[in-house]
Amino acid sequence: MAGPWGGRLARRSSRAGGDGCCWALPTGLLCAYGFFCNVRPSEPFLTRYLLEPHKNLSETQVFNEIYPVWTYSYLALLFPVFLATDYLRYKPVVLLQGLSLIITWFMLLYVQGLRAVQLLEFFYGMGTATDIAYYSYIYSIVDINLYQKVTSYCRSATLVGYTVGSVSGQVLVSVAGWSLFSLNVISLTSISIAFGTAWFLPMPQKSLFFHHVSSQQLSWEMKVMDCKNGSAVQDRPNVQSAPGWEDETKAPLNGEGHSAEKRKVDIVKVLKDLWKDFLQCYSSRTMLCWSVWWALSTCGYFQVINYAQGLWEMVLPSHNTEIYNGAVEAVSTLLGAVAVFVVGHIKTSWAMWGEVALSLFSFLIAAAVYIMDTVRNIWACYASYVVFRIIYMLLITIATFQIATNLSVERYALVFGVNTFIALALQTLLTLIVVDASGLGLDIFTQFMIYASYFAAISLVFLGSGIFSVMKAYRRRQKRMESRSTESQ
Q: Which helix (H) or strand (E) holds 231?
């Protein structure tokens, strides 16, 4: 995420760099888990399935009383899960995610009625909140010099799994004529395979906050960022972190044979350290800017993807004609992946032009959502949705690059968690006011008009901030040129 591992450090480091078995096994298992967990061919047709007669649910109940439960449960569980994931060392929470998704799809197959489906949404929220364990598990297992490689493998596995699920769902519905119940059976089977795979994951010995390496070794292993001025103040790339996993029934938490009971974890101290890191990271204007956009845009993104199927159902009811939700999800995912790959090779000064770019692309997102809402043509809705997802995936990748540059893994995890929590808090507020039946309970078209206006407001905010930043940079450059000309005279 040396002291705690004693003499085993050099031996394990050389083994990890030599035959590669120490990182290949857990990475392969985790990728298999991520793939099967995301092969869910029924997901693009969830709204259509819930509105089928046997579920006995109305459109208002689905949109205004059931879907909001996911947002509320995700927010309520995110912070406890964030701490529990680190404290329990990842694997138990990965297993909890698999179990939560199994319960979700089992209930989706067999339960009926409003309250039962709301409970289903709670378990789905738990499955979403525990997703953090999947993405952070691997960092406690592999050497720091393998982080980029294994991250790409794990994210690619989920991407391929989601694409396979969407495509297979569309083919089985449109070509083979399968029922949506059968698609949910396939989803449940795939998730069950993922759950079985997770049991074979090695139990990590360390985690980022509660079971971390000594502070001396940590300072050697990771770049520590001075968030005030954005510069890396330490870097010792020649020192590797221990892979740190063995048979979970045999491995102690440190190399000295001390039991887990003797290794007291001061939760209050961990929380204080997190608070100090939080204040230091967000004291950087650049970090704050990209984090604000991350939180605001992710809030809007969640809302749009959560209710897009509902909008499509209103534009073209699925019982009247063939729908292509699965194909649209697959195409948008693949094109988004291409955009993410391309942006990784773009060389530009994001420090100067980043806010202007955020403004421009946020405006394009607003336009896409507006077209989706007002044209009322299913193909226009599909095309706008694809554009919407591509732009968001592109921008969130840029934001990730900017935030993660020179940050230690602990601080990146903290910033990611805080940004996601703020996004969910905003989404909860938006859902409570706009969507929930206890609030305004607006119809789906009015909701999407509000979401388009929301992204337009984000665009205006960052346009003003971007113009200010460019002018400030231009004035600094002018002053430097004037001072140089004065010195030359």
A: strand 231-234
User: Are 70 and 170 contacting, i.e. CB atoms less than 8 angstroms apart?
Assistant: no
pLDDT tens for each residue of 420-445? 889 999 999 999 999 988 888 899 99
The pair phi, psi for residue 208, each rounded to 5°, is -70, -40
For residue 472, CA distances in Å to 2, 237, 255, 282 come to: 46, 36, 53, 21
State the first-to-last Cα distance of the chain, in angstroms, to the nearest integer. Answer: 54
Distance between CA atoms of residues 183 and 204, nearest Å = 35
Cα separation, 201 vs 203, whole angstroms: 6
CB 132 within 8 A of CB 90: no
Cα angle, residue 400 at apex, residues 25 and 92 outer, rounded to 5°: 40
Quick one: which of 153, 285, 263 has its CA closest to 206? 263
Is the predicted pLDDT of residue 135 greater than 50, yes or no? Answer: yes
Identify the helix (H) or strand (E) that includes residue 177.
none
Here the tokens at position 154 are 């794990």
Give the model confidence (pLDDT) of 320-331 as tens digits: 678 899 999 999
**For 451-474, what is the mean pLDDT?**
85
| Residue 246, strand partner residues | 203
Helix (H, G, I), strand (E, B) or coil at 116: helix
Rounded distance between C-alpha atoms, residue 116 and residue 427, angstroms: 23
Q: Are 57 and 102 in contact (CB under 8 A)?
A: no
∠ CA 278-409-98, nearest 5°, is 100
Helices (H) and strands (E) in the chain, counts: 18, 4
Encode pLDDT of 96-128 as tens digits.
999 999 999 999 999 988 999 999 999 999 999
Q: What is the pLDDT of residue 218?
A: 39
**Measuring CA to CA, how many Å separate 305 from each of 141, 252, 392, 402?**
33, 44, 11, 25
Cβ 307 vs Cβ 436: under 8 Å: no
Q: Quick one: 249 exposed, middle or buried, by C-beta within 10 A (0-12, 13-18, 19+)?
A: exposed
> What is residue 62's predicted lDDT score, i.e. its pLDDT?
92
- DSSP per residue over 309-338, as a string? HHHHHHHS-TTTS---HHHHHHHHHHHHHH
Task: Compute the residue count for the chain.
Answer: 489
Question: Helices 409-430 & 67-87, crossing angle to 10 degrees?
Answer: 160
Alpha helices in 45-179 (DSSP H): 46-50, 59-61, 67-87, 91-110, 114-129, 131-137, 147-174
pLDDT on residue 152: 74
Neighbours of 420 (CB within 10 A): 23
Degrees to nearest 5, angle at CA 328 with 325 and 375: 85
